User: Which sequence fits this backbone?
C-alpha cells in the first residue's frame, strides 16, 4: 500500500537577530515603520508540510508519493527527497514561479517576524489525483495537509470519489479557511490531526463542538508536545500515549510532521491506533533533535531502542518487526 501526501513544498530561510525587536520600535512612530536588521545567522532548510511528512515516511522504508507544486528551483531539493525514498514524479513543476518560501527572523527573546511566499503552491489546485492513482496503483491513504485551500478541497473530494481514505491535516491553513471549507475538509476523515491550539481553532472554524467533530471522523489525534498525543474516538473515553523523550537538545520545527509520518506508516502496516501513535512519538523524538524539519535520520535499531525504553518490549515487538521488515525491503 502506498501513501500519497498532498500539501506544501517549501524552502525555509531562517535568520537570527542578536538584539530585540521591541528595542527598535518607537511608540510614537509605529504608523510609519521602516527597519532593517543586521543578522548573525542564516540557515536555509528544506521544508513544506507535505515534503516533511513524505521525508519521514521515506525514512521508515515506505515509498510515499509527494503531491504538490514546486518551482524551477526544485532540482537539488528533489534529488534529496528521492534519495530519502520519496516518489516525486507527481510534483507539478511551475515554469514561471519559484518554490514556496518561508522567511523568518527571530530575535534573542524568540520574537519572530516572518513572511511566506506561496509561489508555485498557488498552482497546486491544478493537480489531479486520478492520473497519479493510475500511475502508482494501490494508494491506500491520501494525506491532505496544508496547501493552497482550493487544492486541499479538491484532493479531499477526489480521494472520497476514488474511495481512498483521507488523513485530514488542515493545521496551518485553519486561519485561511472559512466555516464551510473547514467542515468539508474534516467530514469523513479516517484520521484527523491537530495540535492543542489547532484543535481549539478547528472547533471555532467549524462551529462544531468536540463531540460533533468526533461524530464525523474516525479518530482525532491531538499532539500535546512533551505530554504525548491524545487519541479520541466518538463514544469512547480519550486515551493519551506518552511522548518519547529526545536524546539531546530540542528544536520543535517539524516534530508534528514527523509524528504524522510515524503514525501513518504504522497505520498503513495495519497496526492499531495506539501502536501507530507510539511510533509517531518515537519518530518525532528524532526530529526534535535535528536542525530543521528534515534534519534527522532513522534506523530500526535506534527506533527500537526508544520504543522499548519508553513503552516496553511487550507493546512494541510488533512495531519492531515491521521496522526491520520495511528496512530489509528497501
Assistant:
Amino acid at each position: 500500500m502506498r501513501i500519497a501526501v498532498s500539501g506544501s513544498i517549501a524552502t525555509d530561510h531562517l535568520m537570527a537577530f542578536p538584539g530585540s525587536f521591541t528595542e527598535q520600535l518607537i511608540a510614537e512612530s509605529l504608523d510609519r515603520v521602516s527597519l532593517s536588521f543586521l543578522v548573525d545567522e542564516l540557515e536555509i532548510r528544506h521544508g513544506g508540510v507535505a515534503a516533511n511528512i513524505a521525508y519521514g515516511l521515506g525514512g521508515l522504508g515506505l515509498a510515499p508519493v509527494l503531491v504538490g507544486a514546486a518551482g524551477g528551483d526544485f532540482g537539488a531539493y528533489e534529488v534529496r527527497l528521492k534519495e530519502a525514498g520519496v516518489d516525486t514524479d507527481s510534483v507539478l513543476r511551475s515554469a514561471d514561479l519559484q518554490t514556496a518560501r518561508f522567511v523568518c527572523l527571530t530575535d534573542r527573546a524568540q520574537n519572530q517576524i516572518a513572511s511566506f511566499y506561496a509561489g508555485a503552491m498557488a498552482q497546486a489546485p491544478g493537480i489531479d489525483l486520478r492520473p497519479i492513482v493510475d500511475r502508482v496503483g494501490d494508494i491506500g491513504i491520501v494525506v491532505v495537509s496544508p496547501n493552497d485551500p482550493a487544492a486541499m478541497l479538491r484532493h479531499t473530494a477526489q480521494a472520497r470519489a476514488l474511495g481512498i481514505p483521507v488523513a485530514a491535516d488542515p493545521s496551518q491553513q485553519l486561519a485561511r479557511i472559512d466555516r464551510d471549507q473547514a467542515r468539508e475538509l474534516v467530514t469523513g476523515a479516517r484520521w484527523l490531526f491537530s495540535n492543542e491550539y489547532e484543535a481549539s481553532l478547528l472547533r471555532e472554524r467549524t462551529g462544531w463542538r468536540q463531540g460533533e467533530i468526533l461524530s464525523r471522523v474516525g479518530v482525532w489525534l491531538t499532539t500535546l508536545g512533551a505530554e504525548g498525543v491524545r487519541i479520541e474516538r466518538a463514544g469512547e473515553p480519550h486515551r493519551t500515549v506518552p511522548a518519547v523523550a529526545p536524546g539531546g537538545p530540542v528544536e520543535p520545527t517539524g516534530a508534528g510532521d514527523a509524528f504524522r509520518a510515524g503514525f501513518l506508516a504504522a497505520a498503513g502496516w495495519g497496526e492499531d491506533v495506539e501502536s501507530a501513535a507510539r511510533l509517531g512519538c518515537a519518530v518525532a523524538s528524532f526530529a526534535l533533535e535535528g536542525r530543521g524539519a528534515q534534519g534527522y535520520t532513522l534506523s530500526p535499531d535506534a527506533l527500537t531502542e526508544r520504543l522499548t525504553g519508553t513503552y516496553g518490549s511487550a507493546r512494541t515487538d510488533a512495531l519492531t518487526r515491521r521496522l526491520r521488515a520495511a528496512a530489509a525491503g528497501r
Remarks:
- The CA atoms of residues 195 and 223 lie 5 Å apart.
- DSSP finds eleven helices and 14 strands in the chain.
